[in-house]
Amino acid sequence: MTSTDPTPTAGRARTAARRALIPLAALTLALAACDQGGPAPEPTDQETSVQSSTPTPDDSAAPTPSAPSGPAPSAPPASTAPPAASTNALLTVSVQQDASSDPVQYVLECVDGVSGPASTHPNADAACATVARLGTAFFTARPNKDVVCTQQYGGPQTASITGEIDGTSVVGSFALTDGCQISRWTSVQDLLGAPGAQ
Q1: Which one of 44, 81, 91, 149 is CB 3.0 to 4.6 Å from 178, fit for a cystine?
Q2: Can you tell me the distance from the alpha carbon of 173 to that of 160, in angstroms, rounded to the nearest whole number?
Q3: How far apart are CA 86 and CA 142, in angstroms?
Q4: Whole-structure pTM over 0.70, yes or no?
Q5: How far apart are CA 175 and CA 157, in angstroms?
């Protein structure tokens, strides 16, 4: 005799559903625990010699003008960074095409954001503008070991930038060994030349 009672089949379906829900609930809890601090920040163009973590001068971080909701403040808020036009720097830029070649060195002097008389850099005006845009923080940032970089190789070039920007000593090392390094090199392309260029 065949049974037409749906109860045994329904019981098996509920059991199967419960078994599927347990791993799903565990996965949901695990993902929720990973997301406690909000979304992870995207890597920036500002990277140190190992990995990226440097804050980028970003138009989206700047206050945007909006309709005043009350009386205008009597004085603008004090800026923590000097305006780009007042950036002063004396840097030595060294670029080496590969391990067997001699490095090429340039001096970059920026006085009030424009190239100074001591500059031997071939693109000094653009390089001074880049230094002013990036500021000291780009060159003094520490590596963030938690940043994951794409594993790609941009070439054997290496470079260094040493000296002072607005009275702060800076030392930066550059390579093309991964995506973070390539992005970082591209940020200072006006100082170092195009990545992979001979």
Answers
A1: 149
A2: 4
A3: 25
A4: no
A5: 6
Burial class (CB in 10 A: 0-12, 13-18, 19+), 176: buried
- What is the SS3 assignment for 117-159? CCCCCCCHHHHHHHHHHHHHHHHHCCCCCCCCCCCCCCCCCEE
pLDDT above 70 (res 71): no
Residues in the chain: 198
CA atoms of 153 and 175, how far apart (whole Å): 10
CA atoms within 13 Å, Cβ hemisphere of 7: 2
Q: At what angle do helices 124-140 and 179-187 cross, to 10 degrees?
A: 130
CA distance 60 to 64: 8
Q: How far apart are the first and last CA of the chain?
A: 86
State how far the Cα of 19 lies from the Cα of 113, in Å rounded to an integer. 66
